[in-house]
Amino acid sequence: MTDTSESTKERNREIARNEEAKQVTGSVRVSTWAVAAAVIMGGILFTLGWLSLR
């Protein structure tokens, strides 16, 4: 009985590690897209401001 319990605990730990890795990967992906969108928007606004001053 304890062998099954230990294997279940180890399986749950492995699942938790995998889920954590997935969340980190997802967070990095979202952050990368957010930075890219901010840079693009900043470039557009800078260009529009520069053109309006010319």
Question: Overview of this structure, please?
Answer:
With 54 residues, this protein is mostly helical. The protein has one domain. It is built from 1 helix and no strands. The longest helix has 52 residues, at 2-53. It is rod-shaped and about 80 Å long. Keywords: Membrane, Transmembrane, Transmembrane helix. The chain crosses the membrane at residues 33-53. Residues 1-21 are annotated as: Disordered.
Percent of sequence in beta strands: under 5%
Q: Give me the strand/helix succession.
A: H
Work out the helicity level: over 70%
Structurally, how many domains make up the residues? 1
Please outline the major beta sheet: none
Total helical elements: 1
The backbone outline, from C-alpha atoms, is: rod-shaped
Please state the structural category. mainly alpha
| Number of distinct beta strands | 0
Q: Low-confidence runs (pLDDT<50, min 5 residues)?
A: none
Question: What's the oligomerization state?
Answer: single chain
Taking all Cα atoms into account, the compactness measure Rg is: 23 Å
| N/C terminus separation | 80 Å
Could you report the average pLDDT, rounded to the nearest whole number?
Answer: 92
